[in-house]
Amino acid sequence: MKHKLIFLLLLASLTYGCMEMPITIPSGTIDPGTGPDQRKVLVEELTGVRCPNCPDGTASLVALGDQLGENLIVVSIHAAPGYDQPYPESQYDFRTSDGSILSNYIGLPSFFPTAAINRRIVPPETEPYLPRQMWAGIIDEDLGEDPAMSIELEKNYDAISRKLNLTVTMTPRAALSGEHRLTLLITQDSIQDVQKKGLEKIPDYYHRHVLRDVITQATGDVISEPLVVNNAVEKKYSITLPVEWNEKHCSVVAFIHHGSAPDKEVLQAVEVHVTD
Amino acid sequence: MCDATFAKNYSEHLRMKHLLPIAIFTVLMSGLNAQNNNARITGNLQSNGNFFIKDSAIGAINTPQYNFRKFGAESWLTLNYSNWGFDVGVRFDLFNNSNLLNPNGAFTDEGIGRWYVHKQIDKFDLSGGYLYDQIGSGIIFRAYEERALLIDNALYGVKVAYNFNDNWKLKAFTGRQKRQFDTYGAVLRGGSLEGFIKPDSSKNFSLAPGVGVVARTFAEEVVNNIVQEMRFYLPADSTGVQYNTYAMTLFNTMTAGDFSWYAEGAFKTKDVIYNEFREHASIIGQDTILIPGTLVNTNGYMLYSSFTYSKKGLGITLEGKYTKNFRFRTDPFQTGVQGPINFMPPLAKQNTFRLPARFSPATQEIGEKGLQLDIRYALSKKISLGLNVSDIYQLDGKELYREIAPEITYKKDRKWQALLGLQFLKYNISVYQVKNEAADEDDIIPWVKKGEEGYVDAFTPYAEWLYKFTPRKSLRVEAQYLLTDDEFGSWVNVLAEFGWAPHWLIYASDMYKIKHGEAEASLEKTRYDGLHYPSVGVVYTHRANRFSLAYVKQVEGINCAGGICRLEPTFHGVRLNISSSF
Fold this sequence. Notes:
Order of helices and strands of chain A: HEHEHEEHEEEEEEEEEE
Distance between the termini of chain A: 83 Å
Number of domains of chain A: 1
Shape of chain A: globular
CATH architecture of chain A: Sandwich
Distance between the termini of chain B: 47 Å
Radius of gyration of chain A: 23 Å
Oligomer: heterodimer
Strand content of chain A: 35-45%
Shape of chain B: globular
Number of helices of chain A: 4
Structural class of chain B: mainly beta
Strand content of chain B: over 45%
Number of strands of chain A: 14
Helix content of chain B: under 10%
Number of helices of chain B: 5
Low-confidence stretches of chain A: none
Low-confidence stretches of chain B: 1-11
CATH superfamily of chain A: Immunoglobulins
Mean pLDDT of chain B: 90
C-alpha cells in the first residue's frame, strides 16, 4: 500500500512536471512606423531561374512585404550556385558579376530558398543565409531595434538622358567603431520570364526585386569619414540606366553595413523608386 | 548584437572548451610513466584531400571550389588511452575548404572535435564528454557519426548507467547535441531500461525487451523564432508551440530457434516540425495565396518491425515501417542532415554498385509506409540466389519507391566467381529530388507501357566477375547498364580492378552517358549525352594503413548513408585519402 502511494505520488509529480503553460502567439499585425530613423530590414534573397523552391521563398517575402510596407527591403540576387543559369528559352540573363561577388561576400548557402536578413548570423547558424522558416522571426526582431544610423536617399532622374543622380546622407545615432561600408544597388521588379517552380517551368513568371547592378563596389565602399553621433556624412553617386531596364519598376537600395569584422551586419537601409 | 567583446568572449570560451579535454588527457597520460601497468594507447587517422578541376562540359563549375578555392581537405585524428579502469579519448578535426558540410560550399575550421572520459565503478558506468549512443534501433535517439555526410551529432553531456546484473541495464543521460565545433541550444535528456530474458538456458528462446524516453527542450531563441514565424500565419494554420517534447519507445527482440523478430513502437508528443508538403495561407492585398512549407505543432508516431529466419543455406528478412510526423530535430529550422536527434531505419537495399545506387530513396520523416523483403538461398556450394524487394509509399497511398532485384552468384572452385543481377526500379523523382518527369507515352523499357508523371522507371542489369590468377593476384571486373528514358536517360558503367595482395590495388572505370532515348528530349535532359566519366586510382595498403590516390570524374547524384541522402554536385578532380590505425 505504501509503495503504491509512493508510486502514485511519483507519477503525479512527473505528470505535473510535464505540463506546460501555453505560449501565446501574438497577432500578425505590425505597425512599425516610418521615416529615416525607423529601423528597416534588408533581405538579400539568393535565387536562380532553375531553383524550384525559390519562388515559394519569394512568395513569403511578398506576403511579409505586404504587411511591413517600406520597412522591408528585398533584393533578389540571381547567383544561386547550380540554379542561376538561364534556360535556352529565357529572354533575360539575370546573373551579374556584381551579384556573384555580392553573394560570395555575404556567405555560403546550403539550402534553398535562402536569404540573408540584415546579413546577421543567427546562432546556431554559421552563415548569414537562413532557411525560410526563420525569416519572419528575425525580421520582426530587427524591426524592434533602434537603428544605429539613419539614412536618407535623394534621387534626381532625367528621363531623357536616363541619368540618375543620387545623394546619400548618413547620420550616426549611436557611437560606432570599426570599418563601415555603404552599398548602393539597383533592383528591377516584375520582370516576366521563365522560372522553375516546383516541378513546373513557368514561362511568364513575375521575377521580383531582381538585382540589376551594384553602383558602389559590390562589397561596399568603405566610409572613410569619421562617424560621429548626429554628424551627417554625405555621398554622391550617379548612374545611367541601360535602355533595357524599365525605370518605372526600378528602385535604388542603399545600406550601411560592417565591413568584415566582427561581421557584415547591415545597420540601416533605405529604398526609393527611380520614378515617382 | 555581435560586437567585438562578444566575439572575444566567445573565442575565449571556445579556446577553454578545447583546452579542457587536452588537460584531462595530459593529466591521465602523465601517469603512464609513473605506473606503466595495463596502459593502452590506440588511435586512428583519416584524411581526405580533394583537388578541384573546372570542367564546364560536365557542370563542374560555379562553386567556390572550382572558381577559386581549388583544394579542400578534411582530417580526423583520434587518440584513445585506457588505464586504471579509465578510458579517455580526444579527437582533432580539421576542415579546410571542405565540401562535406555543404556540397556547394567550403567549410573551414579546426579544433577538438571530440573528447570523452569513461569509468566503470562496480555496477555504475559513467561517461562524460562527446558521447555516441542510441536507444533501441535509434528511432527516438541516436547520437552517431557518419563522415561521408559529415553527420556528427554526438551528445555533449554525461551518461550514467547502472547494471543490475548481466542482463538488465538502466541508463540516463543529458546534454546538448554537437554541431561542428559548437552545440545546438536544445537540451536533451533521456534514459532507457534494456534487458535480456532467457527462461531456459537449454533452449534457443530469448527476449530482449527495452523501453526508452527522450525529452527535448527548445532553446528560448528557437521558441521566439517559431512564435515570430507563426504570428504571420492565419489562425487556422497557427498551431502553437511549447518548449518540451517527449519521445517514448518500446521495443523487443524475440529469438526462437531459427526465427528472430524485432518490433519497436514509438510515440512523440506535440512538437513543432517543418512540414514541406503542407501549405499555409497568406493574404496579399485582396488575394489569398498558399505558400508550401509550414511549421506544424503535432504529435507523431512510428512503428518498425523486422522478422528474420536464418537456417543453413537460407536467410529471409522481412521489414516493415510506418512513420507519421516523426521528424525529431534540435530545432525545426534545421534542414537536411543538420540537427536530427533520432535515426529511422531505411527500407531499401544499400546498393554498392554505381548505377543501381543512382536512385536511392531518402527516409521520409513526415510520413511513409513500406515493406522490404530480402531472401538469400544457397542452391549448392557453387550457386546461391538472392532476391530483394522494397516497396515504399506515402501515407496517402502515393508510391515513392519500388525495387525488385534478383541476383545469382556462381563460384567456380577457388579460381573465379561471378555475380549477375537485375534491378527493376520505380523511383518518385518529384518527391526525392524535386525534379519534374513527364509521363511517357511509350516507355523505352518494354514492360513499362506508360510511365507515370514524376517517376523514373529504370531497368539495370549488373554483373561482377572475380578471377584469381594466384592467391595474391586477382582481377575484378564489374559492369552495369542503366536503361531508362527518364531524367538524363541511360548510362553504362564498367570497372576493372587489379589486386596484388597484400599491398596494391589499381583500378580504372568509366561511366558513359548514352544518347537520350526520348526523341524530343529537352536540352536539360540531354546535357550529358555522349560524355565519359573516367576514373583511375591506386590504393596502397600496409598493415592498418591505407593510402589511395585517384583521378575522378563523377556525375551529380544522390549520396546516401543509412537512408539519409543528399544531392551532390558533379565532381572533377583528384582525390587523396589516407587512413591509418595504430
